Amino acid sequence: xKYLICASLILAGCSSSMTEQQCTDTNWHTxxxxxxWSGKYLSYADEYAAQCAEYDSQPDFKQWRxxxxxxxxxxxxxxxxxxxxxxxKTYTGPCLADAEFNKTLNMGAAEAKQKLELQRIETRLKEIxxxxxxxxxxxxxxxxxxxxxxxxxxxxxxxxxxxxxxxPLNKFLFKKK
Length: 177
Description:
Elements: H1 2-12, H2 20-25, H3 28-37, H4 45-53, H5 61-75, H6 78-86, H7 99-132, H8 137-160
Helix pairs in contact: 3-5, 6-7, 7-8
């Protein structure tokens, strides 16, 4: 079983050890760029530290990180984050190391969650309209109250999402005097 795992790692290119010369002569900035473009995570630097420690050598992590983050910033655009959110895809890739990408991804996820809540409220308000047609006194009052509360939530969410003209569905509750 061990041999099977090792063979698959070698075939996948995951166990490429660095030589002493590579540890001392590598242009770490360029290596960082290459690693970012090949989809390696920021934590991959630990692999280099372990491999080069065998030769009492220390990679230039400052340069590696600089190259890595510059390449990551080029490929991890805000548009990509917005697209991921729009497609409701969970993302766990290396772009999370890019601060702007991560911020956009998180803001987009919060907005998407609010839009789902908006849809839920609007659906329930339509259900209430149907139920009110057959409701008796007490049930009618309960439905009116629930409708009012949902209208308030709807206005809050639309304001947060900056939806133009957040009008309530039931205008008689908000008549101007």
